[in-house]
Write a structure and sequence with these properties.
Elements lengths: L2 H35 L10 H14 L1 H4 L13 H8 L4 H11 L10 H14 L13 H5 L26 H17 L33 H15 L21 H22 L3 H22 L15 H5 L6
Helix pairs in contact: 2-6, 5-6, 8-9, 9-10, 10-11
Length: 329
């Protein structure tokens, strides 16, 4: 056997060994990533020591609003089905961000990210979820991989049809009363930071981020954005109310697949806007306003707007615009 052949054999063996080792390492890393990606709050994601720290923070910052036992007081409960049902479709990252950006109510943003994470550990412990020897990490990627297990809270059984009230107004009035002012309030975030303090004007009234003068100062800027997004999400199903009519008297096509699709899109965008508002970042809400504008325009182009020659914008004084509303095009 020549020395040259043995040298080639050893090189080949090293190549094969390196390839095999690389494959093994890749498999182990992939398995670890998959395990992290599928973790739930039932897998023991926090430590007892961390929950104890969170308990101290809770007593100082949260108990007044949420109750000594997290049962709810001025604020909602942080345990049991009413809490889990609200958060079970979101990751722990969303919960930590909610606490970090919006709590406590009288001093939002005063808690550090680590304190917010410790509070979540205490909430989990109080809720009966087991602890482990490892603390809940406070970084975004780690928290985003921890979710709630499916079926943790059973859906409430239907209790039969509730009372159904015939619509008082038409689609145009619904749009002008709810959708138009609340969407415009959200669009205003593009140019006005809701965190800015309103400035008194010469007449003694407050100016700034408020869409109605009589309500200025009653609710904070970011709370207005939260409420506007919620109003859009929860009012959108009214577009599917049987018997609601358009401004021209025609029944709204509430069973039309496109009408239902556009309604679903509005609900999804409004929920996305609310989540962006919870970040308390002007840029985050400004970015999602494009989606909101697109959702409105898609429905308008199909059921409301009649373009003039050359694609000119619709003339609101043209009677044909109202006459053709609620007819899919």
């Amino acid at each position: 056997m020549s020395a040259s052949w043995m040298s080639k054999s050893r090189r080949s063996h090293r190549v094969l060994s390196g390839t095999l080792l690389g494959a093994i390492l890749f498999t182990l890393v992939s398995a670890l990533v998959d395990a992290q990606a599928t973790r739930t709050v039932q897998d023991g994601v926090y430590s007892d020591a961390q929950a104890t720290r969170g308990q101290g923070i809770y007593r100082q910052q949260c108990a007044t609003c949420h109750g000594n036992a997290l049962e709810g007081a001025q604020g909602p409960p942080l345990v049991a089905n009413v809490f889990i049902s609200h958060w079970q479709s979101q990751s722990l990252s969303d919960l930590v961000n909610k606490i970090r950006n919006t709590m406590p109510a009288d001093s939002p943003g005063s808690l550090t990210r680590q304190q917010s994470t410790d509070l979540v550990a205490y909430i989990l412990k109080t809720g009966g979820f087991k602890a482990s020897a490892t603390e809940l990490a406070s970084d975004e990627p780690a928290l985003s991989r921890i979710t709630w297990p499916k079926g943790l809270v059973a859906e409430a059984a239907p209790t039969g049809p509730g009372r159904v009230f015939p619509p008082l107004g038409n689609m145009a009035q619904l749009m002008r009363g709810i959708f138009f002012p609340n969407a415009n309030l959200i669009f205003t975030v593009q140019t006005h930071d809701p965190a800015e303090k309103p400035k008194p004007n010469a007449g003694g009234q407050t100016g700034g981020f408020s869409f109605v003068e009589w309500g200025a100062g009653i609710y904070g800027g970011w709370e207005l954005v939260d409420n506007a997004a919620i109003a859009l999400a929860d009012a959108s199903p009214l577009m599917l109310t049987p018997g609601i009519r358009c401004e021209n008297g025609r029944l709204a096509p509430v069973t039309d697949p496109d009408w239902i699709k556009f309604t679903d899109q509005m609900i999804a965008v409004a929920r996305k806007t609310y989540q962006a508002s919870q970040s308390r970042k002007q840029d985050a809400v400004s970015e999602v306003t494009g989606d909101l504008s697109d959702a409105c325009a898609a429905c308008h182009q199909a059921y409301r707007d009649i373009r003039g020659r050359g694609g000119r914008a619709p003339d609101p004084t043209d009677p044909s615009n109202k006459a053709n509303r609620c007819m899919s095009r």
